[in-house]
Q: What sequence folds into this?
């Protein structure tokens, strides 16, 4: 029973924290939570303080300037692609090498130290004085409360573990599967078409086994059991803790970043023609699509390293 | 070609002739109607013309509440864990 509580608690805490980052803060950065601009900033600073993640200025720089702009998106100088390269992902790596990289990176102490150091720096070193003060006050208050209530064990299991190691693994998988990274620019292609071409919908549901694809009933039943297993072990947990909120339809956000009806994008008709993005069904398929793209890139593709 | 193989080939060709449907559509066909909102949430893909079950949850302000609810519920799981463990 304890195990069940831990797994469920971790999934929900990580999922909630990721929702705060990729939905609340993300659309805050795009000024799409509140109509009053300053309130968006206040919200992002509060969220980033509580979860010890990138502050407004850093996020703005990396996300708006370093990722969304037409002349950097998914190219060699995209901030997110550069971060993945810093962790060891390279153009031209085979699908198998990419999977190996993903598993070893997710479990690598070096990755977690680099990521966590970046988060600490974004809270206690690089931001403005008042944002640093927010972080100091919050963490001093939280740690004092934990000490007073003597709930260090509970705090470590249900706050520190999910919001450091598990949060970072969730972010790594999300980042990796988000776009077709490192793609060269095509002359004459519009920014919006490029955004559509290099994004994909990541629906968290693997294709159901089709009876026609199986020679016998027994193998079909085995296929169904496998599908249920993948759904329960991979796709549903991924939806709760990794591809959270509107991330399955993140491709639509990139085509229309200023969309005021972003929160209901999932329920609106999709684009056709050049603005229709690819679809991936299931997290494994989404990662395979990105890895196949990376393996198709020339090894000497510009790395975009600073 | 053995008879059963030819039947499989025929079934396959018929399946291929059908209009392409997404895994979401396939699941929608074999699940009861009341489960549709749950399948939509899990997959992240709505059926054509499907409306949100709770439209208020599709407002930006509510996204903050949903995220906070998730973190809060996760922390509450810790209470259950603590009670049964200690």
A:
């Amino acid at each position: 029973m304890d195990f069940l509580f831990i797994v469920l608690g971790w999934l929900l805490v990580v999922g909630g924290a990721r929702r705060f980052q990729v939905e609340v803060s993300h659309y805050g950065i795009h000024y799409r939570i509140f109509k009053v601009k300053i309130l968006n900033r206040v919200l992002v600073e509060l969220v980033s303080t509580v979860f010890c993640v990138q502050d407004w200025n850093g996020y703005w720089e990396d996300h708006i300037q370093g990722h969304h702009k037409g002349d950097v998106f998914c190219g060699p100088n995209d901030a997110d692609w550069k971060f993945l390269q810093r962790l060891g992902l390279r153009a031209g790596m085979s699908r198998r090498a990419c999977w190996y990289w993903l598993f070893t990176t997710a479990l690598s102490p070096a990755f977690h130290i680099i990521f966590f150091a970046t988060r600490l720096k974004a809270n206690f070193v690089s931001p403005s004085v008042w944002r640093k003060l927010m972080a100091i006050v919050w963490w001093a208050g939280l740690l004092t409360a934990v000490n007073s209530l003597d709930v260090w064990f509970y705090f470590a299991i249900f706050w520190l573990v999910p919001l450091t190691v598990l949060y970072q693994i969730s972010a790594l998988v999300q980042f990796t599967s988000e776009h077709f990274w490192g793609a060269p620019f095509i002359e004459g292609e519009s920014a919006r078409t490029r955004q559509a071409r290099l994004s994909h919908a990541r629906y968290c549901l693997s294709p159901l086994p089709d009876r026609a694809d199986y020679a016998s009933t027994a193998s079909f039943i085995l296929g169904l059991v496998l599908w249920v297993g993948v759904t329960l072990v991979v796709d549903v947990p991924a939806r709760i803790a990794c591809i959270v909120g509107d991330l399955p339809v993140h491709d639509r956000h990139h085509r229309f970043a200023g969309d005021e009806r972003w929160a209901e994008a999932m329920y609106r008709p999709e684009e056709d023609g050049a603005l229709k993005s690819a679809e991936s069904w299931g997290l494994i398929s989404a990662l395979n699509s990105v890895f196949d793209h990376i393996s198709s890139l020339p090894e000497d593709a510009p790395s975009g390293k600073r | 070609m053995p008879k059963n193989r030819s039947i499989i080939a025929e079934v396959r060709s018929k399946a291929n002739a059908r209009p392409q449907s997404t895994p979401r559509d396939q699941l929608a066909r074999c699940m009861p109607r009341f489960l549709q909102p749950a399948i939509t949430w899990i997959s992240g893909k709505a059926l054509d013309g499907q409306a949100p079950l709770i439209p208020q949850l599709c407002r930006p302000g509510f996204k903050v509440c949903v995220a906070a609810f998730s973190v809060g519920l996760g922390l509450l799981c810790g209470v259950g864990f603590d009670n049964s463990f200690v």
Observations:
- The longest helix of chain B spans residues 60-85.
- The mean pLDDT of chain B is 76.
- Chain B has two domains: 1-48, 54-86.
- The radius of gyration of chain B is 22 Å.
